[in-house]
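User: quick one
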Amino acid sequence: DAGVIQSPRHEVTEMGQEVTLRCKPISGHNSLFWYRQTMMRGLELLIYFNNNVPIDDSGMPEDRFSAKMPNASFSTLKIQPSEPRDSAVYFCASSFSAGQETQYFGPGTRLLVL
Amino acid sequence: GQQLNQSPQSMFIQEGEDVSMNCTSSSIFNTWLWYKQEPGEGPVLLIALYKAGELTSNGRLTAQFGITRKDSFLNISASIPSDVGIYFCAAGINKFYFGSGTKLNVKP
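Assistant: Done. Structure below.
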């Protein structure tokens, strides 16, 4: 079975540009999570969805960040405008539910904002 | 916010040695997870724990869910070079919080 799929795997952009990260969760999973990983702050939960509905976006750093899940098989995380401090690895994860179910991670998108 | 205290931060061991790492929290959680992350990849689930006191093994890995529900440990027996990576604990009820990771280095 295919795991969580993320694209692109690497993104290099200039400050001020819009960045869109994409995620396809594991088929049948009802919950989707976006994380950011940096050396300084480790793994941080940005937002999670349950049945395509955003449940908790308290981790979204600023209004420049937005996330959508238009259907059960696709989600996007958008940064507009991007800044150098947004450089990080962004992971998408999915699970059967947002409760006690374990999460399975995608390979991540490595973002570098110059 | 919630914090998980994971230790040690890093370990340098000889192949064949046993390894132990742990996570503690000031809050009670219903689920504890242990992940391993290798360079350029996402975290991969190793062991999931759902009951206080539960002891679960996965090959050479053994993890326990603390009886107080505020801690967990992971042991790796007879380490091998491919055990190298960063190990994360995670705990949660409705959403998961992650520890800062234990970087394991194994010398052949």
